[in-house]
């Protein structure tokens, strides 16, 4: 029997270990291309709870503060047009359009920014910029100054909060993702309700300037909560390009990008024009502000309930249903509305299905691009909103002004309703690509 040599065996073992480490290093180096957002570090699985609920709370506060203002813009729009800068409807519409455009402008660059700066610092920047914008807007004396404050500054501040608050619920939740995203987006409805009521009360008592200041203080407090609680589930990716276009090679994502692109041309038209249309019908000031507020409140309920139901019947299915129902709400209800009752019916229907539509086309992003690319996919999807945000309301205003009496609201309603129908058709196409032609199937 040959004599054992422990030293020789030890040398062989060391050689095997070194070779194994060398192979592992080569595999990691080859699997992660320079400029790719992929990471060799394994991602943590969504816990579907725990600290994730605090992230949802912080995201809720962030959306309440920023998107809530966006949902209440129609109340300010009506007040400016009627009492502050009368007869400048189209010029005033650009204030909201600048905000709606810029609140998503950082989308393509967000993942690069997030790789350099923690989400909580981005939210802190949003806190300062958003509240300062409202304070400065309260001391303006012309429309162009509102472009800078309520439009540009507030819009960029909202953009810093949007993506930080949006990706948290998508990362921390899987089975309950529809519910988590629905709760987060529902904050815009609650914020719109609160800001609309508050602004309407201020208009009647202490004036629009104090309404802006109060919103500024509220944004300061709410965004501070968001900055304290919106922790990341996974570390930021490395070697991130300034603009990553990998998602544009995904055919399903291109369809989703188109859905987001056309959706924002229509989505904010009701929030911007319902109060002025109610004035056109001769409804009193209380009803005008309440229509906008109730629409926001119903969106709160609609986004959560639709998100909850979608976890059982399929998020792609619900996107199609909500898009079709939003179209019906415009063309069958708002188009024929001549009284307060018919307007109440519209804001309830649109609150449920319009809000639900936005929740669903957001919730499916991660299913289209995958968890590892959710930040990039979300950034590009909502960057598509910039175009509709910038041009949607001015186009609707131009259609309204094109009438013989300068009040062709029916044309603007048809414009929005047809866009929702196109979005529903595109959502149906994406649903078929994702899950096939079988109708009775959870997709």
TrEMBL record:
Membrane-spanning parts: 51-72, 92-114, 121-140, 146-166, 178-198, 210-233, 253-271, 291-309, 316-337, 343-366, 378-400, 412-433
Provenance organism: Phascolomyces articulosus
Family named by the database record: Belongs to the major facilitator superfamily. Monocarboxylate porter (TC 2.A.1.13) family.
Ranges where the Major facilitator superfamily (MFS) profile domain occurs: 252-443
Keywords: Membrane, Transmembrane, Transmembrane helix
Gene Ontology MF annotations: transmembrane transporter activity
InterPro entries: MFS, MFS_dom, MFS_trans_sf, Proton-linked_MCT
This protein's record includes keyword rRNA processing: no
Its membrane topology: Multi-pass membrane protein
Source organism superkingdom: Eukaryota
Keyword ATP-binding in record: no
One protein family per Pfam: MFS_1
GO cellular component, one term: membrane
Compartments in which it is found: Membrane
Name of the protein in its database record: Major facilitator superfamily domain-containing protein
């Amino acid at each position: 029997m040959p004599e054992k040599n422990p030293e020789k065996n030890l040398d062989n073992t060391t050689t095997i270990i070194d070779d194994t480490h060398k192979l592992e290093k080569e595999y990691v180096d080859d699997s992660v291309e320079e400029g790719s957002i992929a990471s060799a570090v394994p991602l943590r699985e969504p816990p579907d709870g725990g600290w994730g609920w605090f992230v949802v709370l912080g995201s809720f506060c962030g959306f309440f503060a920023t998107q809530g203002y966006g949902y209440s813009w129609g109340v300010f729009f009506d007040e400016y047009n009627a009492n502050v800068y009368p007869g400048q409807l189209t010029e005033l519409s650009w204030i909201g359009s600048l905000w709606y455009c810029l609140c998503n402008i950082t989308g393509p660059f967000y993942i690069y920014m997030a790789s350099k700066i923690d989400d909580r610092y981005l939210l802190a920047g949003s806190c300062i910029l958003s509240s300062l914008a409202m304070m400065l807007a309260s001391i303006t004396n012309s429309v162009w100054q509102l472009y800078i404050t309520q439009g540009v500054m507030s819009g960029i501040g909202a953009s810093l909060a949007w993506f930080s608050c949006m990706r948290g619920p998508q990362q921390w939740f899987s089975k309950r993702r529809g519910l988590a995203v629905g709760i987060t987006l529902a904050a815009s409805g609650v914020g719109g309700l609160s800001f609309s009521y508050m602004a309407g009360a201020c208009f009647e008592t202490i004036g629009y300037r104090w309404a802006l200041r109060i919103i500024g203080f509220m944004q300061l407090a709410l965004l501070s909560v968001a900055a304290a609680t919106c922790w990341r589930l996974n570390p930021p990716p490395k070697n991130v390009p300034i603009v990553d276009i990998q998602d544009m090679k995904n055919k399903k994502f291109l369809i989703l990008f188109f859905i987001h692109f056309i959706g924002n041309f229509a989505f904010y038209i009701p929030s911007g024009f319902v109060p002025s249309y109610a004035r056109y019908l001769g409804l009193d000031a209380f009803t005008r502000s309440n229509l906008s507020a109730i629409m926001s409140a119903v969106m709160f309920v609609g986004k959560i309930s639709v998100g909850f139901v979608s976890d059982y019947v399929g998020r792609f299915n619900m996107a199609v249903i909500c898009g079709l129902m939003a179209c019906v709400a415009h063309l069958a209800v708002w188009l024929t509305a001549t009284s307060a009752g018919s307007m109440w019916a519209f804001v309830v229907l649109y609150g449920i299905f319009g809000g639900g539509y936005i929740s669903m086309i957001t919730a499916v992003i991660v299913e289209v691009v995958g968890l590892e690319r959710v930040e990039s996919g979300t950034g590009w999807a909502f960057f598509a909103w910039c175009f509709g945000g910038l041009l949607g309301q001015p186009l609707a205003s131009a259609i309204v002004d094109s009438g013989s009496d300068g009040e062709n609201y029916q044309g603007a309603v048809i414009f929005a309703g047809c866009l929702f129908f196109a979005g529903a058709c595109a959502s149906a196409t994406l649903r078929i690509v994702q899950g096939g032609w079988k109708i009775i199937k959870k997709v």
